[in-house]
Fold HupE/UreJ family protein.
Amino acid sequence: MGQFQLYFQLGIQHILDLDGFDHILFVVALCAIYVLRDWKKIIILVTAFTVGHSITLALATLQLVKVNAEWVEFLIPVTIGITALSNIFKPKSSTGRGIQINYLFAIFFGLIHGLGFSNYLRSLLGKESSIFEPLLAFNLGLEVGQLAIVVIFMVTSSILVGIIGINRRDWALVISSLVLGMSIMMMLDTKFW
């Protein structure tokens, strides 16, 4: 197996690992207000998140940025909670503002999430002579993993909202409330306190 394929698979596995489900929760919170026909917006949203965390992942892996790991572990569930809370308080008749703020959340909060990956990736890279290819492969794997989460979530949403007839707003509120509750538990569970 080549180096690129190895790091690509590690990126996918890292996202889909249920032991570290914070990333899954964030992606679900970002997508909760969308429907399947918004697929282009969702891909842009998820890619914006990847760009955000790729920037800080690269900077932290190269040790150009150093941040207290306890702060990062606390801030990650905070980003999830803020995103979910934004969905809950989004006006019923949206003017698009709720969707636009999700793009800001995706890129800005992606910066924070990237810091959370850096120790993991740095330990994987060890003494690699060049980190460009592994970093690119890992980030592409993360993107593919995120898109897999999006597909599963959006298909489930489409079945429940479009076919079974659950109210779209109620679905978004339930999902966002569950994600908010889980993020609060994650915040309380960090070593920050």
In short: Residues 3-189 form one domain. The CA atoms of residues 13 and 145 lie 7 Å apart. The chain has a mean pLDDT of 89. Helices lie at 3-16, 22-31, 39-61, 69-88, 97-125, 132-163, 168-189.
